[in-house]
Design a protein that fits this description.
By secondary structure, the protein is α+β, with helices and mostly antiparallel strands. The protein is built from one helix and four strands. The chain has a single domain, classed as 2-Layer Sandwich (Glycoprotein, Type 4 Pilin), CATH 3.30.700.
């Protein structure tokens, strides 16, 4: 009986550890994907003297994040006002060129990074100098 209890406890601990490990792997995969998309956008901008209108223009339109959601791209040249731009805690846009992000594990996102729906987003900020969790971003 004691052996079964010990095995059950160890199995519970192993399952929780595996879940955290999978979350870290997915986060790393999303960060790498955003880095690759950013490189494709930069190459497009050099070749075409401007940023693409959509991710389809750089061949990344069908790419999905590790949670199955499409990556989001907002070209700042195509938007009037800054309502759709990702914003930091001071409600200042986090990029001046374009926004590129994953909606994260919950698949929900809104422009301010401080909003509950955006805390798990993986974002590109400071014009590409930061790529990581929105909750880790501190301007």
């Amino acid at each position: 009986m004691l052996t079964i209890a010990i095995v059950g406890i160890l199995a519970t601990l192993a399952t929780a550890s595996y879940g955290r490990y999978r979350d870290r792997v997915r986060l790393a995969e999303a960060i790498l994907d955003i880095g690759h998309i950013q490189a494709a956008i930069s190459q497009f901008a050099i070749n075409n003297r401007g940023f693409p209108n959509t991710l389809n223009d750089v061949g990344k339109g069908g790419l999905r994040d590790p949670w199955g959601n499409p990556y989001e791209y907002v070209n700042h040249d195509d938007v009037r006002g800054n309502g759709k731009f990702r914003k930091d805690k001071s409600i200042v846009p986090i990029n001046s060129d374009y926004d590129l992000f994953s909606a994260g594990k919950d698949g929900l996102s809104v422009p301010p990074l401080t909003a509950r729906a955006s805390r798990d987003d993986i974002v590109r900020a400071n014009n590409g100098r930061f790529i990581g969790l929105a909750s880790d971003y501190d301007p």
